[in-house]
Amino acid sequence: MTGRFAGQVAVVTGAGSGIGRACAQRLAAEGAHVVVNDIDADAAHGTVAAVLGAGGTAEAEAGDVLETGYVQDLFDRIMARHKRIDIVHNNVGFGDRLSITDTSDETWARGIDGNLGATFRGVRAAIRAMAPQGRGAVVNTSSLAGLLKVPGVAPYYGVAKAAVIQLTREAAVEAGQYGIRVNAVVPGSVRAASLERYLGTGERWAAYMEQLPLHRMVEPADIANVVAFLASDEAASITGVAIPVDSGMSAVMYQPDID
Questions:
Q1: How far apart are CA 103 and CA 98, in angstroms?
Q2: Could you tell me if 223 and 22 are in contact, meaning their C-beta atoms sit under 8 angstroms apart?
Q3: Are 117 and 66 in contact (CB under 8 A)?
Q4: Helix residue ranges per DSSP H, 83-154
Q5: Cα–Cα distance between 89 and 164 in angstroms, integer?
Q6: Residue 105 to residues 62, 102, 113, 204, 244: CA-CA distances in angstroms?
Q7: Closest CA to 141 of 53, 68, 60, 242
Q8: Based on C-alpha coordinates, what's the Rg of the chain?
Q9: DSSP state of 233
Q10: The model's pTM
Q11: Cα separations (Å) of 158 from 83, 97, 248?
Q12: Which residues pair with 35 in a beta bridge?
């Protein structure tokens, strides 16, 4: 425990696995009491168990951030219990492999709300809680798919993740007067069960990594490192930015093969 976040309360949504779990563990390891939200109650409690096993403190709040009124109710409950919220990581998101022409109105609406609307509600609730405190840090999870089109990925995902970056700027400007900083992290391909199912773990996985400028896959802990930095006082003058964590993918311009 380094104590960088000692005495602070952090909220991480979508924290039952992957990036969210890694961030919850990292914030707790540095002293924060972490409220772990996930739609999957077992996954949320699994993250809490991992935090407690490492000597940190955490509590589970299972629930769906797409449900009307849930996010504000969640933040109200946390404020009633702890009287403060210092760090919020809006991490919920989901995608699929789908073309524009195969995307129904219902799928589009749910995808935009799940990847953008849920983040908006988290940002709004965070500002409401933090403004009277005169300080706070919010970090939103965008995606490299919000900067560049990823072939095959459902259109709602990239569009919503692009909008998350603009939402981050909007909130940073509005909330700055209250001492609240709002930033975003932009993951590239992150090691996760879903990516392993898609690529496999043998030659295809190795070939994929070899094409990345750093020749390594992004790990959930890599994202957690940046989230922790952005949430800390070391980033006291940083707000409204979106930082790619992608092993250099966003630095490469696609070149058609002409040989």
A1: 7
A2: yes
A3: yes
A4: 105-112, 118-130
A5: 13
A6: 28, 10, 12, 34, 30
A7: 242
A8: 18
A9: G
A10: 0.94
A11: 36, 12, 19
A12: 11, 59
133-172 pLDDT per residue, tens: 999 999 999 999 899 898 888 999 999 999 999 999 999 9
CB 37 within 8 A of CB 44: yes
- The position carrying tokens 């403060």 is 84
DSSP letters along 69-103, please? THHHHHHHHHHHHHS---EEEE------B--STT-
Only one residue has tokens 């706070």, namely 136
Token reading at 98: 């789908």
Q: How many helices (H) and strands (E) in the chain?
A: 9, 7
- Which one of 156, 178, 198, 208 is the catalytic residue? 156
Nearest partner of 20 among 159, 185, 168, judged by Cα:
185
Tokens matching residue 65: 């951030």
Check residue 259 and give its pLDDT: 63
Indicate if 178 belongs to the active site: no
- Interval 207-228 mean pLDDT: 92
Predicted pLDDT of residue 198: 66
Beta bridge partners of 92: none
Taking 70 as the threshold, does the pLDDT of residue 1 lie above it? no
Q: Which two tokens stand for residue 243?
A: 């930082």
**Distance between alpha carbon 26 and the CA centroid of its chain, in Å?**
13
What element of type H or E holds 186?
strand 180-187
Instruction: Count CB atoms within 10 A of the CB of residue 86.
Output: 22
One-letter amino acid of 140: N
Lookup: tokens for 251: 């630095």
Interatomic CA distance for residues 215 and 10, integer angstroms: 33
Sign of the C-alpha dihedral, residues 52, 84, 164, 183? Answer: negative
